[in-house]
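note to self: dont lose this again. the chain is below, predicted strucutre after it. 210 aa total, dont forget to put it in the shared folder this time
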Amino acid sequence: MEPAVDVPDPVTTAAGQLVPVLPLKDVCLFPGASLALVVDRPASVHAIQIASRTGGTLLALGQREVATTAPGPRDLQELGTLAVVREAQSLSPLELRVELDGIARARVVTLVGVDLLLAETEAVPEGDEGDEWGAAVEALARYLHAHADLRSFLDQQRRSGDAMSWVNLACQHLPITASARQKLLEANAAERCSKISRGLDALLRKEQGA
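---
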């Protein structure tokens, strides 16, 4: 297993500041995970460029409707993830390949702007996962035992040494709908562990034809 990589904490560096918003079409970014994607919307490219020049922090927010091509404040979820731009590579004058590291959940206090959106945020505590964490990790171990390639992939995506990062990675990358993923992001640590442990076992039974 590769060691987790330490990254800056935008919860402290971005407190009381406006950070650029990156809308996500059909994915969520969870704390302790990374996300690589190609960005081609002019406003999103601009958001990443601004983040890269101002400390590297942005807010990744899911869209309510995937089909929306130019999301405004009403088209975005209220809760997302503060992230650091780890890498931004130009593919063309209008395209960037970016890699984000999720740091912490955050709720939007205020959104301003028209095309390029900026957000004032407040941190959303994860809470204590308590006894639910053990069941979630056991269910994840069972699922990954049957999917060795997924285990290798998740290991590469892990960006935090926190034990919950495995659960968050599972929530981010397992084959579930974007709306279900958003509900997992909105759940606190204990609720997320409980939901993912039940969901993983159900998914494994379905795949095995049980």
